Amino acid sequence: MSDSIDIARQQLGRMRGMTALYHRRFFTDVWLTLLLWLGLAVAGDLGSELAFLMLPFVALFGAVITAFDASYLIFARHYAAALERYLNYGLGERVLVAADLEDSYLFPLRERKIVTISRHFTWFGFVTAFLTALGALAYVFGVYLALESIDGQPASGIYLGALATITVASLAAGSWWFVSGTGERRLTDILDAAFPKR
Fold first, then answer.
1. Model-level pTM greater than 0.85?
2. Can you name the residues that pair with 113 across neighbouring β-strands?
């Protein structure tokens, strides 16, 4: 039993490291997207109107990459929660409660949500909703500036078709993975079998 406890403790440390890494990665990607978007907007305003064409793509890229960061955060939190349950059982008492705190304070696992926005509203959820709304506004404004730049040009249909295709694909995949719960179900199916609730 002590070897199993030791391995579980090591894995828990690894998962806690992953949650910290993907929190940092998320905010790095937010800032990177913002700076890139603003740089392109300034370049377009200074006369390089082709820069405006990239604005919606950059906003969409930011949404997809930060959702990817969140998917790893959710992965690490699920595994850490299962390891905590296992270790608490092995210790014979409820010592590790970080997963419970995260469920209550950040956002709950095992509940339907839009990435990290759930019915159990938290500041974490508000920040996610706030950044999502800003990203959506940046996307819409980028489309507006891009349309003004290519108005009447023969390639405008190709541009809009490509943008619409990847936008719809991103929304469909995100809804399937996050909102429908597909991603979390894949985790819980394995973790519940490996670490049954006692």
1. yes
2. 118
